[in-house]
């Protein structure tokens, strides 16, 4: 378990007689940005609360930093920062005052407040009242609060929810900085694959409390089979010719025929075949199913 900041082993969790998390085995590598993806109601927040021991897991199913959570609660929680739902910010205090309060509460030296404001890019807004902050700034202040005790692991539940495009970019860049320059491990939940795709190194996809995919972003990409898209005149007869020659035509629109991509050489041969038979090929390109569609496939078919 040494390589994982978080490991759950067949985790199960019920609210009453409703199963919310089922046989969930997460493996979050140290130093990764782990995108925890799933549609609304999939069980992401519940899982994050379990990882924070806010909801109690059965023993020997949740390990953080290699240690069982229920029997090492305090020692583990000292090393985790979290932002779950709304950040707890006092609007009538400045950003800096909010952080200084947190320092006093945790017995950390107050200088840490300035350090964290710079880290999340709020140094210039340090003395502005938090209720004058944009949503993105509030979210970054929330992340600064979570970071103040210098945790190794950050759990962020939908941190870009409700943010405008600028706010999303701010939070996204901050996560990348924290992982690459400050060696934090980050688990970030989202229901939007496009959001996760831009930051995460690893992905876990859940639906109805069950893990449907877990791996690196590249492994997720590999799941989507590459296609060869051919723009050609006279689609119907071109398609008939290709099928006759043994090509697997998967879809056909008014302008484009899609066949499974095999190799560059095969694509060249296909091009020659069409041209020799009098067709005009205006374009030939390799395309992967985009991840958004793949995500929908994965979550719909299960
Ligand atoms: N305290 C609770 N008591 C009973 N059921 C709950 C409770 N909290 C959550 N649930 C149920 O657990 C399921 C998973 O909810 P959860 O909030 O973990 O999902 P989520 O993936 O975070 O979704 P969202 O993005 O909508 O927050 C939902 O069906 C929800 O209604």
Automatic annotation (TrEMBL):
This is ABC-2 type transport system ATP-binding protein. The keyword Transport applies. It holds the Pfam family ABC_tran. Keywords: ATP-binding, Nucleotide-binding, Transport. Residues 6-233 form the ABC transporter domain. It comes from Pedobacter terrae. GO terms for molecular function: ATP binding; ATP hydrolysis activity. It comes from the Bacteria. SMART domains: AAA. InterPro entries: AAA+_ATPase, ABC_transporter-like_ATP-bd, ABC_transporter-like_CS, P-loop_NTPase. Belongs to the ABC transporter superfamily.
């Amino acid at each position: 378990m040494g390589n994982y900041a978080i490991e759950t082993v067949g985790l199960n969790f019920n609210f009453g007689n409703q199963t919310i998390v089922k046989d969930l085995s997460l493996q979050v590598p140290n130093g990764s940005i782990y995108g925890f993806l799933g549609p609304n109601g999939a069980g992401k927040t519940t899982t994050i609360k379990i990882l924070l021991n806010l909801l109690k897991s059965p023993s020997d199913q949740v390990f953080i930093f290699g240690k069982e959570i229920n029997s090492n609660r305090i020692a583990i929680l000292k090393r985790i920062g979290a932002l779950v739902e709304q950040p707890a910010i006092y609007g009538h205090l400045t950003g800096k005052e909010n952080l200084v309060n947190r320092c006093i509460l945790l017995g950390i030296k107050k200088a840490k407040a300035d350090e964290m404001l710079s880290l999340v890019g709020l140094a210039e807004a340090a003395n502005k009242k938090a209720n004058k902050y944009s949503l993105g700034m509030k979210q970054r202040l929330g992340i600064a609060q979570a970071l103040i005790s210098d945790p190794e692991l950050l759990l962020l539940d939908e941190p870009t929810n409700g943010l405008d495009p600028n706010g999303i970019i701010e939070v996204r860049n901050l996560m990348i900085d924290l992982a690459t320059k400050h060696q934090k491990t980050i688990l970030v939940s989202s229901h939007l694959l496009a959001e996760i795709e831009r930051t995460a190194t690893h992905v876990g996809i859940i639906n109805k409390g069950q893990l449907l995919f877990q791996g690196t972003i590249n492994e997720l990409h590999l799941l989507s089979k590459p296609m060869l898209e051919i723009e050609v005149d006279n689609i119907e007869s071109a398609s008939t010719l290709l099928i006759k020659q043994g090509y697997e035509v998967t879809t056909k629109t008014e302008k484009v025929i899609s066949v499974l991509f095999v190799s560059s050489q095969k694509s060249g041969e296909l091009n020659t075949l069409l041209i020799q038979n009098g067709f005009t090929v205006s374009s030939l390109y390799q395309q992967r199913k985009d991840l958004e569609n793949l995500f929908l496939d994965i979550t719909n078919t299960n």
